[in-house]
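Gluconokinase (Canariomyces notabilis), 247 aa
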Amino acid sequence: MLSYDTPVSVNGQTSSPSGSISASHQSVPSTQTSVRLPTPNLSNGSVSNSVAVSNGSQEMGHHIWLVTGPAGCGKSTVAKYLSNALQLPYIEGDEYHPQANIDKMSAGIPLTDADRWDWLTALREAAIHELDRGNDGVVLTCSALKRKYRDVIRVAPYFTPNLYLHFIYLDAPEELLLQRVLARKNHYMGANMVHSQFEVLERPRADETDVITIDVSRPVEEVMADALKRVRQVMDGIKADSQESAA
Ligand SMILES: Nc1ncnc2c1ncn2[C@@H]1O[C@H](COP(=O)(O)OP(=O)(O)OP(=O)(O)O)[C@@H](O)[C@H]1O
Ligand SMILES: O=C(O)[C@H](O)[C@@H](O)[C@H](O)[C@H](O)CO
């Protein structure tokens, strides 16, 4: 039976319980293993159900750039920068938490899976809404700590044609993020919560080919420049692919 614990396949691959990668040959949702999304066709930081189209901005499709990682890794910092640089709307994931979640985190109580499901779905819908309003893309922040949380967002291209979904995972050791959260003022997420984030964190694995990983233990200017460079590389790859299929 399908559940939130069942990994969604990425680029037609699904990870086995042991962590090795196996190709999925299913074309319809299985009753036992993974959901196969429609023809995800890219690697290196993107997944899409897009059919290449030949003109205008349509050629490049629409893009969701999801900046992820544990508390204090720099999601808001990097996402705001990308949003400005790319001239795309920005959605702050923290603003979509229900008050009950904020109250819990403010009290130093980690969220559970059950606390997060509706929040994840709301974020996915908010991102799609920005695209429906005519934007070519959107940048949003979301901790997306576990694989199954990322899979909730991965459903987006299932419903929206010509959509590319990209995760930007900001990676740093726990001790460093603890320092950054300790130094930060006026935020409900206290330093006492950082360890709990790492306890549940599932770093993206090799089969999650829609993830760009950025080392954020570097100075912030370097991190932002690297993130923008990687995003542009992915966009260039998509452009080259669509021009090739149009030729
Ligand atoms: N590369 C960096 N080097 C040093 N400090 C950084 C870096 N990136 C972000 N910071 C600082 O670390 C703190 C946390 O950053 P930010 O608020 O962007 O993280 P976040 O992931 O959005 O946090 P949260 O999930 O808790 O909202 C901020 O004070 C920010 O200025
Ligand atoms: O999944 C979670 O536990 C939450 O999203 C947290 O990560 C916070 O919202 C965020 O990091 C703010 O500090």
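Helices lie at 75-86, 99-106, 113-132, 147-154, 156-159, 174-183, 194-200, 220-246. The beta strands are 13-15, 21-23, 47-48, 62-68, 90-91, 137-141, 163-171, 211-215. ok done for today
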